[in-house]
Amino acid sequence: MLVGTLMAWLGWGTVLFNTDPRDAGAAGFTMFYLTLFMGLVGLITLIELLFRVALMRRSVVLREVKVSFRHAVLLSGVGILSLIFSSQGWLSWWVLVVFIVTACVLEYVSLLVQHARRG
Q1: Contact 71, 39 (CB under 8 A)
Q2: What's the Cα-to-Cα distance from 99 to each of 31, 38, 39, 104, 115, rounded to whole Å?
Q3: Predicted local distance difference test score (pLDDT) of residue 21
Q4: In a 10 Å sphere around its CB, with 0-12 CB exposed, 13-18 middle and 19+ buried, how is residue 42 labelled?
């Protein structure tokens, strides 16, 4: 996971420093946001996993990886969507609230599904 995260950040840095935004078009912006999303997911997953396993003394690492990855995808999604909306001039406080509430609802639904599976 660490190697994948480092590769995502390396890809993001490559796009950042070697792409001219005026000439990139949609493909350049897509690669910028996609590699940034992957790097953030990896970084947030690793940090949260370290926190959950080392500091909270959780023993079932596979379960903690799943939870950390889900949280990282939700947080990174909110962050990337906020950046995209901000770059277009569409971001306001209520749009950000909608993104956060949507992420919270998705987390709640996933917790309900997880609880139903455990029975």
Answers
A1: no
A2: 22, 19, 20, 9, 24
A3: 87
A4: buried
> Which residues have C-beta within 8 Å of that of residue 104, sequence separation ≥ 6?
none
**Alpha-carbon span 80 to 76, nearest angstrom:** 6
Residue 29: what pLDDT?
Answer: 94
What residues in the chain have per-residue pLDDT under 70? none
Burial 65-87 (b: 16+ CB within 10 A, else e): bebbbbbbbbbbbbebbeeeeee
Mind giving me the DSSP string for 23-92? HHHHHHHHHHHHHHHHHHHHHHHHHHHHIIIIIS----HHHHHHHHHHHHHHHHHHHHHHHHHHHHT---
Q: Locate 37 and state its tokens.
A: 């999303």
- Domain extents for the chain? 2-118
Contact 107, 74 (CB under 8 A): yes
